[in-house]
Amino acid sequence: MLLLLLQLLLLLLLLLLLMLLLRLLLLLVLILLVLLILLLLLLLLLLLLLLLQLLILLQLLLRLLLLLLLLLVLQLLLLLQQLLLLLLLLPFLLLPLQLLLLLLLLRLLLCCYCSCCCYGCCCCYSCC
Q1: DSSP string, 14-46
Q2: In angstroms, what is the C-alpha Rg of the chain?
Q3: Which of 28, 50, 76, 93 has its CA 20 to 30 A from that of 43?
Q4: Rounded to an integer, what distance in angstroms lies between the CA atom of residue 64 and that of residue 72?
Q5: Cα–Cα–Cα angle for 72, 78, 80, nearest 5°?
Q6: pLDDT at 109
Q7: Is 43 exposed, middle or buried (0-12, 13-18, 19+ CB in 10 A)?
Q8: H or E element, residue 54
Q9: Taxonomically, which superkingdom (predicted)?
Q10: What confidence tens digit (pLDDT) does each residue in 11-66 have?
Q11: What count of Cα atoms within 13 Å lies in the side-chain half-sphere of residue 74?
Q12: Backbone dihedral angles phi then psi of residue 61, each to the nearest 5 degrees
């Protein structure tokens, strides 16, 4: 009977040991789950930081594009201003050419061409 009692006691100790091992295994699984969740949260945080950096980079690129567009518009406005100035000054720039053409036309109208003149234009009418 004592032997049976010892066997039962040993069986009970083994059962307690098994339950303790199961609890330790459960605790280990729980710790691993918590670590996995923390790792996932860390990855999510890193992803959000990367997204934030990409948004900042995109904002900087948009600002640069806007500045380049503004520079292009200013260059076009400057070119338009120069063209308008040229159009305003064009009659004054062409005035010497207009006077030269007028003098050539007057010379053609006032000169008579005859064979006795050496220069091709005789304005004295004596040899015509």
Answers
A1: HHHHHHHHHHHHHHHHHHHHHHHHHHHHHHHHH
A2: 53
A3: 28
A4: 12
A5: 105
A6: 76
A7: exposed
A8: helix 2-110
A9: Eukaryota
A10: 999 999 999 999 999 999 999 999 999 999 999 999 999 999 999 999 999 999 99
A11: 6
A12: -65, -40
